[in-house]
Design goal:
Helix content: 10-25%
Radius of gyration: 26 Å
Structural class: alpha+beta
Number of strands: 9
Order of helices and strands: HEEEEEEEEE
């Protein structure tokens, strides 16, 4: 039996092979996709010694950060943040509500940010929510909301409470 290679056979063979090439080309991109870690930050608040301000402290600890090129934390409430301590590759934008960390590829990444809100701006009936949003490598976004309690303006700072000393 003799097979001849006609133009029609070449086109038919190419039509069957093309979907396989396209499907195979998509696999590496899917396999390399980034999975966002389920890291819950540690959040607390404290009233300053004057009783005029409440500071919300948020600490992130990414134990497996070797694949992170960039971490961006945004104050969802628009309040200016302060970065506690020095973190390599970290910059705050001009208004202070976006922190960008260009990560060096080390195994872990830990940092703490704070926001300060006047106690008279905390809703005395329901409290006030603040939120923090982090994004890693531009591939995933995770948000955390914290409720500053309504009675925060009535709280006595620990340094002035004689029962705690």
């Amino acid at each position: 039996m003799t097979h001849t290679l006609s133009r029609r056979n070449v086109v038919k063979g190419g039509a069957w092979a093309a979907p396989v090439v396209v499907a195979t080309a998509a696999v590496p991109a899917y396999a390399a996709s980034f999975t966002c870690p389920g890291v819950e930050p540690s959040i607390s608040h404290a009233v300053d010694s004057s009783g005029n301000n409440v500071t919300v402290t948020v600490s992130y600890n990414f134990a497996d950060a070797a694949s992170y090129q960039q971490v961006i934390v945004t104050s969802g409430s628009g309040d200016p943040m302060t970065l506690a301590g020095a973190v390599g590759g970290a910059t705050l934008n001009q208004t202070g509500d976006v922190l960008t960390i260009n990560h060096d590829g080390s195994a872990s990444l830990a940092f703490t940010v704070t926001i300060t809100i006047p106690t008279d701006q905390v809703d005395i009936a329901t409290g006030t929510e603040v939120s923090f949003i982090y994004a890693i490598n531009g591939d995933c976004t995770t948000s955390t909301t914290y409720l500053i309690p309504a009675d925060v303006s009535a709280q006595t700072p620990p340094s002035e409470n004689p029962e705690r000393q």
